[in-house]
Specification:
247 residues; alpha/beta; 8 helices; 17% strand; five-stranded parallel beta sheet; two-stranded antiparallel sheet; Alpha/beta knot
Amino acid sequence: MRITFLTLFPEMYDRFMSTSIIGRAHDNGLARIDTVQIRDFAHDRYHHVDDTPFGGGAGMVMKPQPVIDAICSVKDEGSHVILMDPSGSVYDQKKAHELTGYSHLIFLCGHYEGIDERVKAYVDESLSIGDYVLTGGELASMVIADSVIRLLDGAITADSAADESFEHGLLEYPQYTHPADYQGMKVPDILLSGHHEMIRRWRLQQALVKTREKRPDLFAGYVMNAEEEKLLSMWDEGIEVKVPEKK
């Protein structure tokens, strides 16, 4: 996959492209990441990319010409152009999987009071990472790119990706590591039991309870199967999945 960021601040991506999972994916050729400086496409000697808005108002608006020319410089038949926009569709894990189907993602990052509306004729979709406003689209574009890259084959292990939050409509179950007892806080016995089926059931029960408590909005849209209904009912009756008693 190729990922291109159209931005006024390409230096913001230097560490992003070289760190952790993203850096390895870039180095291994799973994701070819590059940046394009929008200012390079301005025609005047001072490389202006913004101007005052028609009709008045505070702030400046990014001009259509430099932005559109920047898009056209990298867009081809397989490209998908995404405008980072607070008014765009709210991003989620389902969309992350959808974006992995494109060979080339182009992220357009705005600044100032926004981008001239005519630019949107060159954009395939607008996305938002939440109901708040950032200084520019760079941080939001990195969030989305990170979530897409980690889904690419070979970026992380398949088992790790499958168990993460939101992959199956639920938050991830609680995780523990060594030591088994830290300052009196102990790892649940069932995780030390070696009983894989009971561990699976415990984790599923914990994921259901955690999602219902912490994300009721997410849980409201989740359709439980018979096993999940039973596990949640057990929890409501005070019955936690435990290590089977030895006979």
